[in-house]
């Protein structure tokens, strides 16, 4: 498997530095690793272009030792003829002694090796950073996915809540209906009045269950239009020829209505009923068109 260590070995190989004990392992790895093959090729190409413009950073001590060690052993010291080990050569240079002709090539090789090393370590660092970024991106994507799941769950819960609210409202309507039946529809003095639709709602139909003792009527109607938001249906009970406001109501989305009138006990038994379209909240005297009427 490819690793930073092989990248270091690739750099050494590009410099022509013997890999010693790692030689066989690297050769075997290089055969099957496109990354290292590309690195060796790149490093070989760029070795000549290496210059002092490279940003100086501290290379790993191990590789430095290795390069210097290989130089010291004479592996890369073309035309080395000065004799003596590396430290004595360096001492010679430091002492300001006239450098020998063979000095330049290995100094270049060492410098090139170190600069190449800087590039290798820098490249390896960039590679690691890229890898980190890639895994961070993957983690972020995973989190985003979880976020999406949570949003879906929240939406499902919201929907469930809406369904339960609708069931509750339905139960409340059902209770209210039974309550109305108990108080009005099932009173022994209940009277039934039919309401006819008027144009443009001639298909609308309604019935008023009226109980004088309860002083109220219950309107059951169907085929009513759903009105604009600012409008409402208003029930009128006629007494002495005059319309008395008896409450406002809305039709459900299917055009149905179950509505209990206001307390009208003060007017006795109404002569007739009508329903008009009025501003939401109702008015004291009818202004809109009659949609249902009957007696
Ligand atoms: Zn490799």
Share of helical residues: 40-55%
Order of helices and strands: HHHHHHEEEEEEEE
Largest sheet: 8 strands, antiparallel
Tell me the span between the first and last alpha carbons.
96 Å
Helical stretch count? 6
Net shape = rod-shaped
Given the helix and strand composition, which structural class is it? Answer: alpha+beta
What would the average pLDDT be, to the nearest integer? 77
Strand content: 15-25%
Number of strand elements: 8
Bound molecules: zinc ion
Q: Tell me the count of domains.
A: 2
Radius of gyration: 49 Å
* Poorly predicted regions: 51-57, 74-104
Order of adjacent strands in the largest pleated sheet? 5-4-7-8-1-2-3-6
Write the topology of this structure.
Elements: H1 4-15, H2 23-32, H3 34-47, H4 61-72, H5 86-94, H6 103-185, E1 191-197, E2 205-211, E3 216-222, E4 231-239, E5 242-249, E6 257-260, E7 272-279, E8 290-294
Antiparallel strand pairs: 1-2, 1-8, 2-3, 3-6, 4-5, 4-7, 7-8
Residues 2, 6, 29, 33, 35-36 line the site of zinc ion (ZN).
Task: Give a verbal description of the structure.
This protein is α+β, with helices and mostly antiparallel strands and 295 residues long. Helices cover 47% and strands 19% of the residues. It contains six helices and eight strands. The radius of gyration is 49 Å and the shape is rod-shaped. The relative contact order is 0.08. Mean pLDDT is 77; it is low at 51-57 and 74-104. The structure holds zinc ion. Residues 2, 6, 29, 33, 35-36 line the site of zinc ion.
